[in-house]
Predict the 3D structure of the following.
Amino acid sequence: MKEKKIILEIKGDWSTAKPYYVEAITAGFTMFVLRDTADADKIRALGKVEIISPVAKINPDFMLLDITAGMPGKDILDKFLGYSQKKCSFIRLGSKDDENLVIELVNKGVNMVLIEAKDWKVIPLENLIAEMQKKNATLAAKAKDVDEARLFLETLQVGVDGVFYAIDAAKKKVEAFDFGQWKRLMMASGSLELSSAEIVRIEDMGTGERVCVDTISMLGQGEGMLVGNHARGFFLIHGEIADTEFVNARPFRVNAGAVHSYTLKAENKTAYLSELKAGEAVMIVDWQGHTRVSRVGRVKIETRPMLLVEAKVGGETISAIIQNAETICLVDEAGKQISVSKLKKGDKVRVYQTGEKGRHFGKSIEEKIIEK
């Protein structure tokens, strides 16, 4: 799962567009398509943003080549590809040839492709998503509304990397535009198929170093991070959202596991918990498998008493070593916390099985690996 992007184009003169930019940047939207270049400095003054524009003199973060009306001549294309900035193409899909053009441009070095279909169907989007998973480029689809955007972000479970939406500021006042639903869409941007596993072993491991991950997001009921000893399976470790008689809630925190443990990050890559650092993207997962991306604010590694927990699901055993404390919780079949201090054999908890044999530098690989 890549971190999803919402790209906005706000149409209108500065007096009507400014309130939209203010609200958008305040809500966390920072990528804009800009054709009226007179407003570039004013937009940048509002916050740190990324501008996509066809005009080189404003030094955009992405040079834009709009080929919705057809492929330009070789001289124009060569000039575009020669810019030092990142490059973005806007393409209208109408045939298989257009799909092939997207891949061709990415192979030539285009970093982002905005796509729009003349007759928008899911099938061409599925084709491109499948192809673009192999590429180091961003695929964003133009959406007519938030419902269509949601469809694009969830297609093939992977979804596009982002959506592009145009707002006509002159036709609708900013007070009537719901930035909240677009923000929720950006945050809840993927899914995994979780299952329930039966606890078969709980064993004291003595002391060891555990990793506590503080994110920059507030976690909700049933949310946490995926942690496991091996890449083939992960336990859902619940965020510390509840007060106890010993400590107050820390709803931004996942007290995750031992230093050697894997966690599943954005883009379906693993990382050792001990390697996480401030600013890094991590995957937040709820008990139903809905995922979103947050960032690490702080990581704390401290010596604590530890437990080995094993569970069986579908004939496979998965395990994790986690801190032995009342505040450390797994997640039951109803999305509720089960403290490890009360965990017992036979309890059912939420887990994620990858079906993978192993990882190499965080990426899934197919080779003979035995992990115990």
About this structure: The CA atoms of residues 2 and 267 lie 4 Å apart.
